[in-house]
Structure prediction request, 388 residues.
Amino acid sequence: MVSDQYPHTDRGEFVPYDRPRLPEAQMRERAASFYDLMAKRRSIRTFSTDPVPKDLIETAVRTAGTSPSGAHQQPWTFVLISDPETKRRIRIAAEEEERVNYLDGRMPEDWQEEIARLGTSWQKPYLEEAPWIVVLFEQRYGIDPDGSRRKHYYVKESVGIAAGTFIAAIHQMGLATLTHTPSPMAFLTKLLDRPQNERPAILFPVGYPADGTVVPRLERKPLAEILVDYPSGPGGVHRPFVPDDFAVPESFAGPGFHLEPLGPQHNERDHEAWMSSIDHIRSTPGFGPSNDWPSPMDLDANRSDLIGHARDFENRDGFTYSILDGDDVIGCVYIYPSTDPAHDAAVSSWVRATRAEMDDVVYRSLSRWLEGSWPFTAPHYAGRTDAG
Ligand code: IYR
Prediction:
């Protein structure tokens, strides 16, 4: 079909693009559930040797192949390896390079320092353990049927996008992978018998996580750190967490405690309260072992957190209160938007270990307060099932 939407070419062929428009509520639900799925993705470095059917890997590659690319040249090749002998040769070659990186100083100290918390080393047993290795090659240029070279555009960008799509496809089907870049990785071109126009970009071990797999405790940057509104200030269609005419409580008094909006004035007391209660808080509903917090932090870092909470409060993006008994900080309660479409607020609270008996008192009292004095219709008090 030719189209008058494209008056600037007489060479393209055009077909209708027809995707259904969804109601906004459904868009929001799908957006949130995709976010929740992707938020669970982690790179792993210990793989089960359990086999994975090849068709699953093929579908992930097919999915990666849907990625946009410069001039639609699709400058990527995915090489699939499951044969133990080839995996072994890859491992040996990769470890040879990595040994030089880690032990012979090819990777400078500041770089090693930067990755120390990931727990990597020159040893790469996963290259043999994972049932599949997928090596993504970038085609630096194309080769036409007559053998002549064809320039490729935006190769790295295109291959990076395809890698992201591949990773998402693998994660969505319940498998795990790692973006591994043994450095330098030129040995793969030869070992896998690839033509001169291809350069290895990323190596993906793919499989199930080994039993007992752990991953480094890492934090993802909060939205506020990766998103900038331009021009600054509220723009677009802003959905307020609480209605503009809602008067946010500046205090609350419960049995044996009261609340104050958390701010830097609480820093020393708050820091002392939670630093002395790390194990206790980790066993408090809503603060499981997979959470980033609490783990030891100095006073300055804590102050930055409190300033962040005070700013959220000010902007009506989230409400954190210090729980006090007299002037003593005995805990904290967080009221933030829920990422779960079934709930309009996510609430969690902790009390210090020495006041553990207050945990339930606080929960019950704040549940009633949330119900009676806040505009939420379906708040979720994290990890608690009792109706209070
Ligand atoms: N290529 C090495 C080192 C390494 C580099 C970075 I940047 C990482 O995020 C992780 C590891 C290796 O694979 O061990």
About this structure: Residues 84-103 form the longest helix (20 residues). Residues 98, 101, 115, 118, 120, 180-183 surround 3-iodo-tyrosine (CB under 6 Å). The chain has a mean pLDDT of 94. The two ends are 64 Å apart (CA to CA).
